[in-house]
């Protein structure tokens, strides 16, 4: 089996590492605009060799894990280059514009739109880990537009990686993911910003911040290169979630201002329900 | 050594567990308004026996880990009951009102105002763990008001637990902690609320939420009984942090609305500095 991984950072690198374990005979070709990343991935044995789009025609599987703005530009070119039996799968955190970008492509049936919901706040080939995808959810969009045999080929890999597969339309995906992922990132970034602005003396933050702050602000370590185009492509949904979040914070603030601590308690008590809801979410291995 | 632990939940129970390991000969008396918690703590071998304030006169150390509203009421009574050589240490997340509550108490010198910055989102005796305090910071306020010999007695315990000790005045403590702890909790609770409100179908949240959401919303599992009085006592500082946080979220939203993605990137890039700042924060053991 020949597999091309386009974009060999945390997501693509972890995919390649698992693949190598599941299919020891697989020949993994790394494609990346960064020569340094490719060299690092080679050195770490994440890929077997470097390549370019010419390698796509002979590849059985192409996994595309690049920022979603590049994905919009590259995906049509990637489909141009693949063979009849190649399945192309992406890992983009947005799905609507990406599906639209190849809607009328003659090789649309070679593409399976995926969002494996997995990651850490780290990036680059050295952040790649085995087992990143195990137990995580993979949202597949417009699966009916992918050739049946190619669906099978792609799904087999994700199933061997022990992912849970869910099907959804791209518009619904983008709306839901704004709440459970994109908003978390903004809430975390702005929390980090608020504290850094106030606490000019970083030593004080370090000394007083406990693990609660650390976990709440973890996502503020995420890559701006990855997240800016996500927010751009999912702007309307993200703005809507932000408005609701700001409104909830404003209401909570008003309860404090008016010393209505009965309702402060009630608000927190209602939200404690998140305990039950979260019970099944597998934590990312560090 | 006789030690009384008043409030035998996560914080008091973890203190008792470490103490037992460091001072195997210590006799640990549990005091709690909940008979069920005391029975559980006995069964878990966290305490040696149940007791009441009559036991305080003969105790060498009294550790008070109860919600901060109860602390305001109980601390003067606790000091009334202790012996000449007893050191009383609290674990309250606010310090200004607590220090004021015993400011003129004839036994003020028996009290050392502490905030060990440690915890998890869980509560109750069964949540108690060994090593909760290791590597964490303990902020001690108005240390000069504690009798020198009793400072020594208290500090020895925290040092054996490998805590980092920092000294601060109560007003500064409450101001800083609002940023690095109290705001995180509100940001997390309101994130949980926003998502729950939107996603009526909890199965969808469960399936799509990744570990990023899980860590950002972790603090929304915290106890409203503990946190309501913290927000009440530190209301002015908390409202100030909330206003700044809401302002930052509002500005970020405006960047999205006006499609100013250059500055969206810049904002995240500036906040990435949190990586370096956080490097030294020890994660809570789960």
Automatic annotation (TrEMBL), chains A, B:
Enzyme class, first EC level, given as a word: oxidoreductase
Organism: Flagellimonas nanhaiensis
Keywords: Oxidoreductase
Lineage, uppermost ranks: Bacteria, Pseudomonadati, Bacteroidota, Flavobacteriia, Flavobacteriales
Coiled coil: none
EC number: 1.3.1.12
GO biological process, one term: tyrosine biosynthetic process
Signal peptide start and end residues: none
Name of the protein described by the UniProt record: Prephenate dehydrogenase
GO molecular function: NAD+ binding; prephenate dehydrogenase (NAD+) activity; prephenate dehydrogenase (NADP+) activity
């Amino acid at each position: 089996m020949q597999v091309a991984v386009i974009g060999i950072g945390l997501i693509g690198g972890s995919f390649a590492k698992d693949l190598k374990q599941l299919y020891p005979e697989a020949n993994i070709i790394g494609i990346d605009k960064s020569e340094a990343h490719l060299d690092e991935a080679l050195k770490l044995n994440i890929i077997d060799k470097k390549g370019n789009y010419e390698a796509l025609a002979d590849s059985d599987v192409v996994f595309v894990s690049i920022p979603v703005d590049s994905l919009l530009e590259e995906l049509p070119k990637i489909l141009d280059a693949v063979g009849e039996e190649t399945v192309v799968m992406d890992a983009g955190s947005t799905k609507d514009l990406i599906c639209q970008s190849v809607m009328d492509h003659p090789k649309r049936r070679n593409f399976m739109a995926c969002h494996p919901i997995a990651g850490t706040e780290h990036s680059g080939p050295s952040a790649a880990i085995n087992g990143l995808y195990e137990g995580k959810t993979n949202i597949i969009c417009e699966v009916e537009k992918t050739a049946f045999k190619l669906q099978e080929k792609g799904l087999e890999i994700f199933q061997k990686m022990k992912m849970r597969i869910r099907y959804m339309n791209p518009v619904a995906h983008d709306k839901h993911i704004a709440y459970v992922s994109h908003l978390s990132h903004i809430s975390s970034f702005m929390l980090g910003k608020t504290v850094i602005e106030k606490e000019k003396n970083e030593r004080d933050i370090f000394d007083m911040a406990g693990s609660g702050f650390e976990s709440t602000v973890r996502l503020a370590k995420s890559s701006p290169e990855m997240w800016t185009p996500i927010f751009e492509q999912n702007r309307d949904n993200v703005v809507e979630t932000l408005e609701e979040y700001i409104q909830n914070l404003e209401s909570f603030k008003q309860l404090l201002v008016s010393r209505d601590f009965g309702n402060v308690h009630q608000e927190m008590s209602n939200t404690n329900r998140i305990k039950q809801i979260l019970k099944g979410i597998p934590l990312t291995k560090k």
